[in-house]
Sequence to fold (254 residues):
Amino acid sequence: MSAEKENFWSTLPLGRDVTLLAHDASGLAALNKPAGVLSHPNAGGDEPRSLLTVRYTLEGEFYEWKSAAEAAPRRLWLLNRLDSATSGVVLVCADEALAHEIRAQFKRKRVHKVYAALVFSAPRAPIELWKDTLAVQRKGGQLRAELNTGRVPAETKMSLVRTSRGEPRVSLLRLEPHTGRSHQLRVQCAQRHLPIVGDQTYGNFPRNREFAKSAGTKRMFLHSLETRFDYEWKGRTHVFSAAAPLPEEFTLRS
Fold:
């Protein structure tokens, strides 16, 4: 890899506690986004608490900034988004044409994603395939999803990792969405009486308060654990994989 490309990745204006997980020679990369950080600014003044602390162009879906040593601005295209409260893998790209290709991969459902979720209670079976229909609406400027009221399919494989012995009873789940709908995992968990700990929209609010008090954290316990896929670029097949370590606060205590 050229020194110029390596310099690009090593000097990214990353947001608070955002880290670079992986990058390849084509210009594709993965960042680890902490809970509470925005995937991109939503309004003026949001830059300091975003994935990158520079200007974001909503129409082009890219961050832009200037290097002191270069006349042309640098750009980084955002390929997927996580809710502010969700942590983990976010994909970005330094090449516009490649960004379009990877976004097409998402539309063709060729990107495999794995999430970890800490939920109240425990599932009925250790492995389940959740199949639902979903309706997503914007109410008061906020997205809201409802299950089994729309026609959009939402499918997720759930695997139980472990369940705590003490109270409150919580379980760590591995969630593999086969579709990528807004708030899909959060509302699917809530519908099955497995609300994600700390979810302020679909969760169990009294239990959230109790858990936050005992655990000392108010975050939502949903984490994008792994993303992997193959892609064709310049006549070759490339394999890309990135994993964001499970945050320490997800550790179950007996």
User: Anything to note?
Assistant: The chain has four helices and 13 strands.
